[in-house]
Amino acid sequence: MKTSTGIEKLDIFLNGGFKANSVVLVNGMKSVKNLFSVQFLKKGIYITTDNVSNVKDRIKDYNLKNDVKFISIGSEGGDKNVEGPSSLEEISIALDDLWKGPYLGDIVLNSLSSLMLHNSLERVVDFLHSLINKTKTKNKVLMFVIDDETLKKKEVKTIEEISTVIVSFIKNDAGRFIGVKDDCPDSLLEFNIGENGIELDEEFL
Questions:
Q1: What is the spatial distance between Cα 191 and Cα 148, in angstroms, rounded to a whole number?
Q2: What is the pLDDT of residues 183-196, one digit of tens each?
Q3: Topology of the domain comprising 22-172
């Protein structure tokens, strides 16, 4: 069973989407990866270090349909509010309280980099493994967003090794591309942003 990426043609390219139990790292262009994280999550829990109202605005602006509960880190407005990014145990407790019933779906953490700036790498890795163990028991997808430029190379490498899929949003002289690394050959796929979010330019059908 696979989970939709939220982008129809990317699902086709990936033969149905992300595999069950995938651990998806998202990096690259900030505004685009933030949009991708909400476009992906149809049902589940969105853990954010951003203001929840900003996340909800993205959902509204692109006519996305989500059945999501929010854990807000460091601000008000979530279904559960956590004091700050160093409160990893509190985040876990909030997740256990919300991740049930109709909201027992996939989990997004945006951004992991904020947690890494306030905790040791070892502590963050332990926290990630606890999230991975949760999603694996229910065959769900865990997605986390990072800001490469704020992290050390060792930190980025460690997080990449934990991931099973890496999705990168890249802008260069040739255009804007989604880079996908999983168990198929690495690929760069040109994209644009329409009224309903991120769309691939290539035809795969």
A1: 21
A2: 766 778 999 999 99
A3: Rossmann fold (3.40.50)
Tell me, what amino acid is at 40? F
State the Cα–Cα distance between residues 110 and 34, nearest whole angstrom: 8
What is d(CA 165, CA 170) in angstroms, rounded to the nearest whole number?
Answer: 16
Contacts of 60 by beta carbon, 8 Å cutoff, 6+ apart: none
| Both structure tokens of 42 | 């149809």
Band of the pLDDT at 1, cuts 50, 70, 90? confident
Residue 204, amino acid? F
Question: Are the beta carbons of 147 and 32 closer than 8 angstroms?
Answer: no
Phi then psi for residue 63, to 5 deg, are: 55, 40
- What is the rounded distance in angstroms from the CA atom of residue 11 to the CA atom of residue 142? 17
The three-class DSSP label of residue 94 is helix
Q: Where are the domains of the chain?
A: 22-172
- Give the global pTM: 0.95
The string of pLDDT tens digits covering residues 103-132 is 999 999 999 999 999 999 999 999 999 999
